[in-house]
Amino acid sequence: MQRFQNYPFICSLLAIIVTWFLVVITNYRVGTWLIGWDSLLPEINIWLNISRSLTAAWQEYQGLGLLGGIGHGSEITRQILLLPFILSLPTSLIRYLWTFAMLLLGPLGVFFWTRQLIKDKLSLSSYFVELSALVASLAYLLNLATIQYFFLPLEAFSSFYGFLPWLLMTAVQYLHTPSSKRLWKFAVWSLLATSAFHVQTLFVVYAIVLG
Length: 211
Known about the structure:
Layout: H1 2-5, H2 7-27, H3 46-54, E1 58-59, E2 66-67, H4 76-86, H5 91-121, H6 126-142, H7 144-151, H8 155-176, H9 180-192, H10 200-210
Helix pairs in contact: 2-5, 2-6, 3-4, 5-6, 5-8, 8-9
């Protein structure tokens, strides 16, 4: 009986993944590079870019050197996360990989957070819970704002899209029932999401929403 109770959850997850995959195969072009807003391609020389991220306050390589105007150092976590793929995959795939991963991560975050919110507030059947979470997730994936975010990609925006639901979910979980485990969970997601705040105004938006 328990196995059948999991079917709505599994089917909803599969529906999200299949929809995301259809978006991916529609937009990926074999043998091309994904060049977006600022052509941010640390994968071309990852070790150089990691060293630049560790000394990001002073941008030695720009002109005669200048103080960094945006959060260059925030890229360090993304570069470390991508490092195994950079060392094993064709360089032209790396930006596609991150962009499409964020396009999946965001809707999954909305799915799990919606499930939690409904279960905490309402006593409803599992079918209705999973269906509601699926609709919310697909709305996040397929709305016009998502096209605006990803049509001309920049890692800060794609990372913000992917990590925001997880940041808000773990923050609300901790505020609702404080514990060291939930605080660590929120801290880990916050660390993973630092590349979302390469553009500082996105952190202002996040702080307002969180506040």
